[in-house]
Specification:
Blueprint lengths: L6 E4 L5 H12 L4 E6 L11 E4 L5 H10 L5 E4 L14 H22 L7 E5 L12 H21 L5 E6 L18 H14 L3 E3 L2 H9 L13
Parallel strand pairs: 1-2, 1-4, 2-3, 4-5, 5-6, 6-7
Helix pairs in contact: 1-5, 2-3, 3-4
Length: 230
């Protein structure tokens, strides 16, 4: 998959990593970049084609797919974090996370998949796809579901030659993580790494060493990942 000349669509392109994806795609010579957002008026990037898209609304997804039928690179970046736990948390917030990360991503893939033969899909996942975090367990559950979805659609779309890549990362310097005093990756660097992975045909991109360490730890005793319950 070559970025130069590609027609890409980025969900959640108004800020954070999504905005950096749109910028990096333009810098690499993409033929067209659809920058989508629930509030398209917030997209401020010259050179993109702005589309409204709420991935939790099937009608909105269908409308975007009808207007952007030439897409051959789909970047599923849109997301939400409500910082909600599972046992006592607000069920509506938990449903919102699943509706966004699992159902929303699935709706978008189903809408665009028929046109993606020989193209690629990139799903922006998280280190929390593999490990839970007290205080954001709804996010972890939703991202774990999206990780499994990524693996499933990769198998289903292999016959039509669609590359399906999962991008896994820890904290990034975005609005979503603004309240956390932790080391954060540069969203621009994350976008560069992910697009390098697409061009190399990678099915998984690990954006940082911490995420690689979590992946390696999955083969060991789970108590190593959860010292609070050891």
């Amino acid at each position: 998959m070559k970025i130069s000349g590609a027609v890409a669509l980025v969900t959640g392109a108004n800020r954070g990593i999504g905005r950096q994806f749109a910028l990096e795609l333009l810098a690499r010579g993409a033929g067209k970049v659809y920058a989508t957002a629930r509030r398209p008026e917030l997209v401020d990037l010259p050179g993109v084609e702005v589309l409204p898209l709420d991935i939790t609304d099937p009608a909105s997804v269908a409308a975007a797919a009808a207007r952007a039928g030439d897409v051959n690179l789909l970047i599923n970046n849109a997301g939400v974090s409500t910082y909600t736990n599972l046992v006592t948390g607000d069920l509506d917030k938990i449903r919102l996370e699943l509706d966004t990360h699992f159902w929303g991503t699935l709706h978008v893939i189903r809408a665009f998949a028929p046109a993606l033969g020989g193209g690629a899909i990139l799903n922006v996942l998280s280190r929390l796809s593999w490990v839970s975090y007290d205080g954001a367990n709804a996010y972890s559950a939703a991202k774990a579901a999206e990780w499994s979805l990524t693996n499933g659609v990769r198998l289903e779309l292999a016959a039509q030659g669609t590359l399906v890549t999962g991008l896994l990362l820890g904290a990034a310097d975005t609005d979503m993580m603004a309240g956390f005093d932790v080391e954060k990756a540069d969203p621009a660097q994350i976008a560069r790494l992910a697009l390098d992975g697409i061009e190399a045909g990678a099915i998984e991109v690990l954006a940082d060493e911490g995420t690689a360490q979590v992946k390696a730890a999955l083969a060991g005793d789970p108590r190593a990942l959860y010292p609070a319950v050891a």
